[in-house]
Amino acid sequence: MNRIILLVDDDIFQLRLFEKLLTSNGYNCKIALSVDEAESILQSETPDLIVSDYEMPGKDGFEFRRRLLKEDSFKNIPFLFLTSVNDKDNVQQGLDLKAIDYIAKNTPPSHILSKIDNLLQAVREHYERSLSEIKGIAERLNLRNIPKKAPKLKHFKIDYFNQSFQNQPGGDFIDFIQTNERYTFIILGDVMGKKWGAWFFSFSFLSYIRSAIRLCVYDENYSLSEILNKLNRVIHDDELLSDIFSTLSIVLLDDELGTVMYAGAGDLPILKFEEETMELHQFKSDGILLGFSEFGDYNEMEIKLDVDEELYMISDGMIDFELNGKKKSDINLFKEKLFNFKQNKESIQTIKDRLFDKHVSQVDDCSIIIIKKV
Amino acid sequence: MNVKKQNIDDLVLLTIVDKDANLTKSENFKEIVFKEIESGTRKLIISFEHVEYLDSSFLGALVAILKNLVPKNGRLILIELDNDIRNLFELTRLDKIFELKNSLETAIEDFK
């Protein structure tokens, strides 16, 4: 992915010169002839670097920098000042405004390019280091919203796959709760949002889900409808989660009778491939997002599953695609792919490999759980 | 976040100008609309005329806006959603929560 650089200068000649130099070296440039134009671009694009002149009519570069520092979304974007040769005072003033560095306008192009390359590389490395430290801490605290392995059952085989978005954990969460030898609950949720924010809240939802299931099971209550209704009410009343919403698919496997029950909250339909008719069926739950309304009215249904048939639980990242630079959510496209794999009798591993192909542009974190009756 | 505001009698129409309504814009959009609600707006229309893709962060922001508005006896209508986005609303039962209309005219008519 090309990195974006926002260039701000009232001198169109200088701007075009920089733009040509950077675009011919793999950068994607946005140009602005004034601070107002730059701020308008920032409303729809978040660049990886801003390079701005000091002296411009109207708002100058210093004012631009001061305004950016006041905005949480912009203050951490690396910022370089452009300067003429002999203005040491301006250089100092710029550095005092937390600009990372400055570039003199008469610097040879190859030096400018090296400076920008090195700067962005250093920012990237710093980010990777921080990410790795946080991941290490999460691992040590046993904070995991995707389990390490699936339970082994007599009548069902469970496979699951999760792929993070841009190498950061996200809002998808999976859990397998085996309450005894007979019953296993399979959970797939997706906290609305992306990356760390969604990841953090997924643990609150997971805790509530685990508690709701355990409390109902203590009373010998295995009704998914009742579990979801209770869960929804608790989440609705939790002020910390008042602005955070999650979808949820919950499946109960009875390993004694080989039956499957399902209920959901704002989730995508569960898909089933029927071997005999070679058809892909979908089962849509009727519940709304967890926590939106005090009474969600969640219902459960039984899904008949014969030996060798498979169920697919998916998160919304599985149906988001980027084609020719255009993003879209399309479950039919996903169903078409899955149907073709099944028609060609592809193995679960091949289906997983093809669905998570690194060449397919990913827009969000993606999860799929495949339940096969054996 | 590029949002155009238009007052139509006692209604406020907010048009999202960006093609991608995503994570980087959802918080800012939520703040803009929350301020609108704080200033007393109770009849709100949000137009998706220019939006081609809506991610789950932005959907979450829309749900939070509705949850904020409803207890204040406010009403929100979403208009001009393209087919893919409308399908996503139907697929995830968000159409049970939100009022969706095809055009500004039908939304205004509905508010009368």
Structural notes for this entry:
The complex is a heterodimer of chains A (374) and B (112). Chain A has 374 residues and is of the alpha+beta class. Chain A folds into two domains: 4-139, Rossmann fold (3-Layer(aba) Sandwich); 145-373, 4-Layer Sandwich (Phosphatase 2c, domain 1), CATH 3.60.40. Chain A contains nine helices and 17 strands. Chain A has helices at 12-23, 35-42, 61-69, 88-96, 109-140, 195-218, 224-237, 331-343, 348-355; strands at 4-8, 28-32, 49-53, 79-83, 101-104, 156-163, 172-178, 183-191, 246-254, 259-265, 270-274, 279-283, 301-302, 310-314, 320-323, 326-329, 366-373. In chain A, helix 1 (12-23) links the parallel strand 1 (4-8) and strand 2. The mean pLDDT of chain A is 88. In chain B, helix 1 runs parallel beside helix 2 (56-69). In chain B, the strands form two sheets. Chain B has a five-stranded mixed β-sheet with strand order 1-2-4-6-7. A two-stranded parallel ribbon of chain B has the order 3-5. Chain B has one domain: STAS domain (Transcription Regulator spoIIAA). Chain B is α/β, with parallel strands linked by helices. In chain B, 46% of the residues lie in helices and 26% in strands. The termini of chain B are far apart. The chains are: A alpha+beta (374), B alpha/beta (112). The A-B interface holds A 40, 43-44, 46, 73, 171, 190, 192-195, 198, 242-245, 247, 266-269, 284-289, 292-293, 316, 320, 326-331, 363-364 and B 1-2, 17-18, 20, 23-28, 52-57, 59-60, 63-64, 66-67, 84-85, 87-88, 91-94, 96-97.
